[in-house]
Amino acid sequence: MIHTTAIIAISVDGKISTAINNPARFSTKADLEHLETQISLCDAIIFGANTLRAYGTSLVIKNPELLQQRKENHQPSQPLNIVCSASGKINPQLPFFSQPLPRGLLTTSQGIINFEEKIRDFNTKNNLNSNNYFEQVFINENTINWQEFFIKLTNLNYKKIGILGGKELISSLIAENLINEIWLTICPLIIGRKFAPDFLNFDLLQEINLPINLKLLEVKQIDQEIFLHYLILT
Question: How far apart are the C-alpha atoms of 12 and 192, rounded to whole Å?
């Protein structure tokens, strides 16, 4: 059975970035180490295409102790990095595709057509013949079906999944009761910009029974950041 943990860093006013499609650069080294630790516990991590476009890369586990723990647990050195993109419009030139980690794509039947077109255009322009972008591809018909996708992950023996954002991904999974825990890093700043993205898409949550109750499992403070670990109660 799959167990999912959303791992999010936010400002005091609940923003995940200073502007739409901008990477968040306000968390500290401690938060990056925390993120690396949480990722190291996962069999796979999932993030949206907008998150990938903003950063261009994923986080590769480099800490020798974490790598040793994964080895002792009979896990590969890196979890499967799954990009969620219904449109499949992902730039094959992103540095992500040259990082030393396994990659997966969750998309639709039209999305895989769009991505394969981008690959053909890129290969033609650069005189390449490469198709080594995603080791695993999961295809839904017209829209992403999260329940079906999680069954596929279960059948492939992926048990612990990290959810890294963005807000549409996290909100969609919460709306379908598919997130078990949340690790929330509170960073010491107020962004205060109207169009800076929140960490949840509130429109996606209107169809469910609100409010959602949480149970606080753990609190840590490292310098000026607070790390909150919650269980989502169902």
Answer: 9
